[in-house]
Design goal:
The protein has about 450 residues and is of the alpha/beta class. It is built from 14 helices and 16 strands. The chain folds into 2 domains: about 110 residues, Aspartate Aminotransferase, domain 1, CATH 3.90.1150.10; about 270 residues, 3-Layer(aba) Sandwich (Aspartate Aminotransferase, domain 2). The protein has a 7-stranded mixed beta sheet, sandwiched between helices. A hairpin with a 5-residue loop joins strand 8 and strand 9. Helix 5 packs parallel to helix 12 and helix 9 runs parallel beside helix 10. It binds pyridoxal-5'-phosphate (PLP). Pyridoxal-5'-phosphate (PLP) binds next to helix 6.
C-alpha cells in the first residue's frame, strides 16, 4: 500500500492511485484518466508530473485570471488572515475583512448595487440569487436562456440552458424554471439578419412569453451578461436594455450571472458594462480570487438590500464569507486595479487575440468564424466537408466524433492546456499574459 507520508510519490503510483480512487466530474472516469496530473504552475504555464509544460490557454475553467505566480501581497494576506482569524461562521458574527471586501466591491459596482453575500462558488452564488429573487418578489419562476450555464447544483443546473441541464432533469429537476431563446444566431435559427431585428424579435418573443407565463408568477430573468461556456456571445445591441425595461414593466428581478465574465475578462470590469443597464442582482466568482480560493459574490441593489434588512435572507452556508478567502479576494482585486488588468485585457490582449483568431478563421476550413471580447475569444469549429458544427448543442456528436478526440490530443501534444467545449474552442489566457509570451503554439 502507498506510503502516505513520504514527501513525493513515483509518477506510476500517482496514476495507479488516481485510477483506483479519483472520480471524474461531469463525465465518466475515463475523462480524467488520460488527463495530465499537474504538479506546479508559474506565470501562465502549468507543468505535469512528467515535467511537460503547458500554456494554460483557457485559465482552466476561465478562472485563474491572475496566472500561477501568486502575487506576494496575496500570499501574505492569506498567511496573515490564517494567523489572525482562520474562520468565522457568518451566521454568528462578522469580520473586518468581510466588511472591507463588501465596501471595496460596492465602489467597483455602479449605481446602488451595495449589498453582498459571499458564497463559495458560482453555482452557490446563483442558488442564493435565485432564493433572494423568489423571496423578494414572492414569485417562483425564473426565466433563463438556452445556451447558458449557471452551475452544477440542482437549481443552477436546471436554470442552465445547455445540454448539461439533462443531468439535473434526469434525476429530479428543480421546479420553477422557464427557458427563453438566446437572441444570438445559432446554427439552426436566427431572429433576423441585423442586431435591430434580432433585438426586436427576441424581445417581442420574451414579452409574449412573460404574458403567457403570467407576469406575477415570474421572480427573475437570469442571464449571463455575455454567454461564456456557450461561446463568448455578446447580446445584440439594445437587447439587454430591452430585458431591463421588461423587468421594470413587470416587477421582475434582473439577475446578471457574471461568474465567468466578471472581474475584467471581457475588457470591462463587469460584463454588463457592455450595455446600458444596472442589474438588480449580480453574481460572480472565479476571477474574484483569481480562483486561488473558493469565493463568490452575490451583489444586490439597495431596494433588495433594504428588503432583507427586515426580512430573513433565508440562505446561508458554513463557509460563507470565509475570512481567508475574503482576504485573498481583497488582495486580488487590489492587484487587478494596481496593474490595470482590465485595460490590459482590452488594449493589449484583445488586439493580439483578434489577429490570431482572424488568421485561424481565414486559414482553416474547420474554423467557421471567431470572435473576441477583451481577453475572451472563441472559434466555432465545423466539419469542413459539410460546414456543420462538430458537435450539436444537445452535446451529441455530429458526423465525425473522433475529430474532437484528435483535436484535444493535438492541443496537448502542442503544449496547450485548457477546456475544449465543442463546437466551440475557447481562448482565454490569464489577464496577466504579456505580448512577448508564446501565445499560440499551433500554427
Ligand atoms: N455561471 C457561469 C456563467 C459559469 O460559467 C459557471 C462556471 O463555469 C458557473 C455559473 C458555476 O460556477 P462554479 O463552477 O464555481 O460553481
Amino acid at each position: 500500500s502507498a506510503d502516505h507520508w513520504s514527501e513525493s510519490w513515483e509518477v506510476d503510483d500517482l496514476y495507479a492511485k488516481s485510477q483506483e480512487h479519483v472520480m471524474a466530474t461531469w463525465g465518466p472516469g475515463s475523462y480524467i484518466r488520460g488527463a495530465p496530473i499537474l504538479s506546479h504552475g508559474e506565470g501562465c504555464h502549468l507543468w505535469d508530473v512528467h515535467g511537460n509544460k503547458y500554456l494554460d490557454w483557457t485559465c482552466q475553467a476561465i478562472c485563474t485570471n491572475l496566472g500561477y505566480s501568486v502575487p506576494p501581497a496575496v500570499l501574505e494576506a492569506a498567511y496573515k488572515q490564517m494567523k489572525k482569524l482562520p474562520m468565522a461562521y457568518g451566521g454568528l458574527g462578522n469580520t473586518e475583512i468581510r466588511v472591507r471586501l463588501a465596501s471595496l466591491l460596492s465602489e467597483l459596482l455602479p449605481g446602488d448595487i451595495n449589498g453582498f453575500l459571499f458564497p463559495s462558488g458560482g453555482s452557490e452564488a446563483n442558488e442564493a440569487a435565485i432564493r433572494l429573487a423568489r423571496r423578494y418578489t414572492g414569485r417562483s419562476k425564473i426565466i433563463n436562456h438556452y445556451r447558458s450555464y449557471h452551475g452544477g447544483s440542482s437549481a443552477a443546473l436546471t436554470a442552465t440552458g445547455d445540454f448539461r441541464r439533462g443531468f439535473a432533469e434526469a434525476a429530479a429537476p428543480a421546479p420553477g424554471f422557464v427557458k427563453t431563446m438566446n437572441p444570438n444566431d445559432s446554427y439552426l435559427f436566427s431572429f433576423g439578419s441585423t442586431d435591430e431585428e434580432r433585438t426586436a424579435k427576441s424581445l417581442g418573443y420574451l414579452e409574449e412569453q412573460i404574458k403567457c407565463e403570467g407576469p406575477n408568477t415570474i421572480a427573475a430573468i437570469m442571464l449571463e451578461s455575455l454567454v461564456g461556456s456557450g461561446g463568448v456571445l455578446k447580446a445584440p445591441k439594445g437587447y439587454m436594455e430591452g430585458v431591463r425595461a421588461l423587468c421594470d414593466k413587470y416587477g421582475i428581478v434582473l439577475i446578471c450571472d457574471e461568474v465567468m465574465v466578471g472581474f475584467g475578462r471581457t475588457g470591462k470590469f463587469w460584463g454588463f458594462q457592455h450595455y446600458d443597464i444596472i442589474p438588480d442582482i449580480v453574481t460572480s466568482a472565479k476571477g474574484l480570487t483569481g480562483a486561488y480560493m473558493p469565493l463568490s459574490m452575490v451583489a444586490v441593489r439597495s431596494h433588495i438590500k433594504d428588503y432583507f434588512e427586515v426580512n430573513p435572507v433565508g440562505w446561508g452556508a458554513t463557509f460563507q464569507a470565509h475570512p481567508v478567502a475574503c482576504a485573498v479576494g481583497y488582495e486580488c482585486v487590489k492587484f487587478m486595479l494596481e496593474k490595470d488588468l482590465v485595460r490590459h485585457a482590452k488594449e493589449v490582449i484583445e488586439p493580439i487575440m483578434q489577429k490570431h483568431i482572424d488568421r485561424f478563421a481565414e486559414k482553416y476550413d474547420s474554423v467557421a468564424r471567431g470572435r473576441v471580447v477583451g481577453a475572451f475569444g472563441c472559434l466555432d469549429l465545423v466539419d469542413p466537408r459539410t460546414g456543420a458544427p462538430v458537435q450539436n448543442f444537445d452535446g451529441s456528436d455530429c458526423s465525425k466524433p473522433e475529430a474532437i478526440t484528435i483535436f484535444r490530443a493535438a492541443l496537448k501534444e502542442n503544449g496547450l492546456y485548457g477546456f475544449v467545449r465543442p463546437p466551440m474552442f475557447h481562448c482565454a489566457p490569464a489577464l496577466v499574459i504579456q505580448p512577448e509570451e508564446p501565445w499560440i503554439c499551433l500554427t
